[in-house]
Design goal:
- Helix content is 60%, strand content 0%.
- The protein is mainly α and 337 residues long.
- The model has no long low-confidence stretch (mean pLDDT 95).
């Protein structure tokens, strides 16, 4: 018996009857030999972790564009916080931690430079065709590994695709990531808002703090405990009505006071204009795209889709650099003068 088979047997003996077992995966689009050490979801986790698109998350905006400070969240640190929250919940409920972690690490791979500002631009320019969750799936299915994709299992791709609030993942592990994502960004972004001197603890309505806690750590602790307590021995991931309603109110508070705050978002107008100009420039100069993107074009992909693939894969700084190359004039210089 291989080590992988021993781990799979351990899953069958110890995990909840509602867990998604590795041996029950619906598999990959392209069959491949099993690893002798790692079950399928662990392999998926590792593939995402070693991907180029995952590494680029460290230089993509979470909330604050190019913040002057080392401690503001990036898209990478947000992803790791989602993973940590989700694994805590999964372990307590005896669900599949490997599946949860793989979904969490991959859920935001498709995010654009400058966060949701960049996503809004590409969505508008493509009549709603661009969505970051769908782009995340496109990355793992097609764009990574020079067009070969990562060949992930169906369950991981389903969880990545359906991590948005209005969508429903097929597994409990996917549902854990979906709610962990919201818990992570609401609490961490509030912490960054305090760091930026835009928000303070007393800004949150007192009734919400009485229900959820009087600081970020207390609110995280409350929400994770509430999910675990209310999801035990159930084929669902849920909160108590009181906590869920308070959480939705806190999320609404964040949208009204941070995510649309003119101070926090003052640079987004510039970022959106920059992404729009890059989009039109590449549409008019398609030959400037890397060879792998041109290959997809020759294979029948629509031009707007390939341009979106390239732009959405950029880090914030790379987008700024390319914009500078195309639109910022360089001073004339004659040798010797």
């Amino acid at each position: 018996m291989t080590i992988r088979e021993q781990i799979e047997r351990m899953e069958q003996e110890t995990l909840s009857p509602y867990a998604c077992l590795s041996v029950n995966s619906r598999g990959r689009d392209v069959d491949e030999p099993q690893c002798d050490i790692r079950p399928v979801f662990q392999r998926d986790r590792d593939r995402i972790l070693h991907s180029k698109s995952f590494r680029r998350l460290k230089n993509k905006t979470q909330v604050f564009l190019t913040p002057k400070g080392d401690h503001y969240r990036t898209r990478l640190s947000h992803t790791l916080e989602v993973s940590q929250n989700a694994r805590t919940i999964a372990k307590a409920l005896r669900l599949n931690e490997d599946l949860v972690e793989a979904i969490a690490l991959g859920h935001d791979l498709g995010h654009t430079p400058f966060g949701h500002a960049g996503e809004r631009v590409l969505a508008r320019l493509t009549n709603g065709e661009f969505k970051h969750n769908e782009q995340s799936v496109r990355i793992v299915e097609k764009l990574e590994k020079e067009g070969k994709g990562l060949n992930l299992t169906w369950e991981v791709r389903d969880g990545i695709l359906n991590h948005e609030m209005d969508l429903t993942p097929a597994t409990l592990e996917g549902k854990i990531v979906r709610i962990s994502d919201k818990i992570a960004y609401v609490n961490a972004d509030f912490d960054d808002g305090i760091r930026a001197l835009i928000l303070c603890e007393e800004d949150i309505p007192l009734e919400l703090r009485k229900t959820l806690g009087f600081n970020v750590k207390a609110r995280l602790n409350h929400l994770i405990h509430d999910i675990i307590i209310n999801s035990q021995d159930k084929d669902d991931i849920c909160m108590s009505d009181e906590s869920w309603e308070a959480f939705l109110e806190l999320r609404k508070f964040m949208f009204e006071n941070l995510y649309t705050n003119p101070v926090a978002k003052s640079e987004e107008v510039k970022a959106e204009a920059m992404i729009e100009q890059l989009y039109y420039y590449y549409m008019d100069h398609i030959d400037l795209l890397p060879e792998k993107h041109l290959t997809m074009l020759h294979e029948g992909e629509e031009q707007y889709r390939v341009v979106c693939d390239y732009i959405s894969g950029m880090t914030d700084q790379y987008a700024i650099t390319k914009f500078g190359e195309f639109f910022i004039p360089v001073a004339w210089q004659v040798d010797g003068y």
